[in-house]
Fold this protein.
Amino acid sequence: MLHRNMSMQMYLVGGAVRDALLGLPVQDRDWVAVGADPQALLDAGYLPVGKDFPVFLHPKTHEEVALARTERKTGSGYRGFQVHAAPDVTLEQDLARRDLTINAMAQAEDGSLVDPYGGQRDLQARVLRHVSQAFVEDPVRILRLARFAARFSDFSVAPETMTLMQEMVNNGEVDALVPERVWQEMSRGLMEDRPSRMIEVLRECGALARLAPALDRLFGVPQPPVHHPEVDTGAHLLLVLDQCARVQAPLTVRFAALCHDLGKGDTPEADWPRHPGHDARGVPLTEALSAHWRVPTECRDLAVLVAREHIHLHSSLGFSPEARLRLLERCDALRRPDRFKEMLLACECDVRGRTGMENRDYPQRPWMLQSLAAVLAVDTAAISAQALAAGRKGPAIGQAIHLARLNALRAMEPVQSM
């Protein structure tokens, strides 16, 4: 660190300390300055950033340094806080405002560990536990804990912490969360190694029903056992999400997996367990959830396509060349081949996200990729030139291209020979 006032002490805090103790790679290193004011850090050469409370960057490493601070609840939601940062704030006071004990440890510059709230003990016991009653003051902490449950999937949630989260949901604190913050945490949780754990924790505390009621409705809804040995639609969803993680699918695919069966939550009980038409019913529900969370366009668009077309893609082995071409055109696969590949990956995870079917073959994926390649190989420029030379125009050229693409699909070997 830089030369500074001798009364100022620097401590490595948070995730860097936690991950080092777990033997994991340390991605980001955040520091807390104790016994300092903003001028002391400026005098030491640190660069000021941030508006809500004094945060600085090391001029060489660009690691973040925050003044030790306390927080006092002044309003609803996660923004309703008054921050106090001053030289008289102790390290223990700063750590007390943090969410979980495993994130409330610090390391002095001499390497010694400061652990006033039992974080190391909870790391060893594999427990996610709140630091103090102040946990209830910030609803984002529910999302963060659920995300950590997805990252550290062998950790359990302390019963008293789950009780606090349930109280927060019942008191309406979760309703104060803004969409951008919900999506920020949910998207990060979806990208963890066990995204199913995030959904399980949110459901157990009641937050899922507030944040995404269409998702919550899937649990307890039966499916045909012959296709779904796990039977429960919600259980299937969790398996599909973990399949996405298993193949390291991108966020677009994982969000599509999250939404692919939303229509089953609105199936009339008289139509259980078959769910006819759930694909079409899922489209507006996917659009609504995407709008509610303000999901990025590429995530929303893929999710809508998968919700609408996953049944057709599952059935594509038996499709005629005409039906396959219509499917490719509906999915805009000719213009967006990479997105179509993501659709197929989401569908493969859907099929493998079933009890005992984790390694099941999904020949529809290579078959439809082969179909797409055959169509894309058609030389549309040459066909257009020939048609123009023959005096054909407009729709006639389009018909010639369509026929050439159809013939390319007809020339493919039957799927049984794959």
